[in-house]
Structure formats: C-alpha cells, structure tokens
Amino acid sequence: MSQQVEVLFENLWQDYLSRTPSAKKVHQILGEGHPIVNDHVAFRTFDISPVGLEVLAQHFLDLGYKEGGDYHFEAKKLRAKHFEHEDPELPKVFISELMTAEFSEELQKKVKDMVAQVSVEDTKKSDFLYSGTHWKVSHADYQALLEESEYAAWMAAFGYCANHFTVSVNQLPGYESLEQVNQKLKDNGFKLNDSGGEIKGSPEVYLEQSSTMADRHPVEFSDKTAEIPSCFYEFAKRYEIENGKLYTGFVAASADKIFESTNAN
C-alpha cells in the first residue's frame, strides 16, 4: 500500500514541477543536498458531480488515508477537508471545493459546461489527480471567471493537479524557525505571499505557514496562449499540541490567505 502511495506522490510531484519550475530551486536553496520532507499536498475542485471533494478524496481513502478536519471559507465560498495516513511519514492531503451555487448564473454555467466533459470513469482512473483539464476554455472565459473567483479561473486553466506541495520546516535541517526559511527565500529572489503577513498562524494555534507567490506558466486557451499564475510552494512549521505530538490539522484563517498565493502578482 505504501508503495502505491509513494508512486502517486511521485507522479503528482513530477506533474507539479512541469508548471512550478521554481520548486527545484527551493530544494537547492533550503535542502542543500538534504531530502525535503513534504508536509501536505493540496487540491482544488468544484462541488458538482462527478468531481466533488469526496470523489478526489476516495483516491486517498483507498490508500489508507482517514478523514481529519472540516473547514469553511465564507468569503471565498469554499469548503475543505484534510486527510491523514496512519504512517506519519506520508504527507497529509488538503482538498477544497468551490461552492458554485453561491456564485452568479454565468459562473455556474461555465463551470457546469467544463465539468460535463468529465466522465465518472475519468474520475476513477489512477491518474485523475494529475490529469489536468478535461476541457478547453477561452481566455475571455478565464478572465470572466477571474473577476468572480480566482479559484474558479485557476481550475478552468489547470484542472486536476497538485495546487501546491509543502516543505515541513520541522524536518528541515539547519532551520529553527519559519522566519529563517522566509529570509533565505527572499535573499534568493523569491516573492512571498504577504496577505495577512508573511507568516500566517502562530504557535498559539499550533501551526505557522508561509508560501511563495505562484510561478507564471503559459496556458493554451482555445483562442490564445497566455502566461498566468500556476502553482506555488508552501512552508509549514507545526507545534506540539501535547507531549511529543505535533498538531496535524489546519487553521482556516491561515489557509484562507494561502489560497491567495495564486493571485496575480
């Protein structure tokens, strides 16, 4: 089972690198030859059959993952869940979905037209989580979605893939704090997401997070190719919730700001 999980994450990683070339530079700068431990991987989707959150989650449940917490993001109109494996060495998984009924009829129609091109069979394939878009949208449609929801526009452009990977700062040799990680990144030319401050969270909520702003990647729309924000890298430092046990959940107020790492910068 663990081998299947490792194969899935390796395939997700290689796919992520294809639109996030800066990730390799992050490893060179922070890892300096040491392996980087992944805290969690995040995915986005829509709350419409057959692609809802639970459909993506099933891929991980089948590999031995269990449900963790539930999260709601009222301003961005999202719900999310996280999943954990009993093997603490395996990454956690964070899956969110857009609550489409809370948006305009125009957005709902565009999303339904995209999702209609995904079959139930597609969603069950082992590579669905890195299968990308199953549709072609115009750049004009992307811009129209962007005006209402950055999340919906990102999904229209990139579809099913890892939105971000996350460096576990707790297991990063040579770093005691997230501030040190952030400074090292900035010293090497990385732009960090400063929405709500460069560090989201605190030891009081047992989790601190920061992230780069997304790379820019060319996307072939139906009418033109345009360079837009793609994926980013997150950094997480977890604190002990009880003796020797690190907090394994997420903090909604912090995650809300992390979502903004794919905003235009």
TrEMBL record:
Instruction: Cite the Pfam families for this sequence.
Output: HGLS
Cofactors required = Fe(2+)
Q: Does the keyword Nucleotide-binding apply?
A: no
List the EC numbers from the record.
Answer: 1.13.11.93
* Single Gene Ontology MF annotation: dioxygenase activity
Task: Respond yes or no to whether keyword Oxidoreductase is given for this record.
Answer: yes
Q: Which UniProt keywords apply?
A: Dioxygenase, Iron, Oxidoreductase
What PANTHER family does the entry give? Answer: 2-OXOADIPATE DIOXYGENASE_DECARBOXYLASE, CHLOROPLASTIC, DUF1338 DOMAIN-CONTAINING PROTEIN
Q: State the family it belongs to.
A: Belongs to the 2-oxoadipate dioxygenase/decarboxylase family.
Name this polypeptide is given: 2-oxoadipate dioxygenase/decarboxylase
Name the source organism: Idiomarina abyssalis
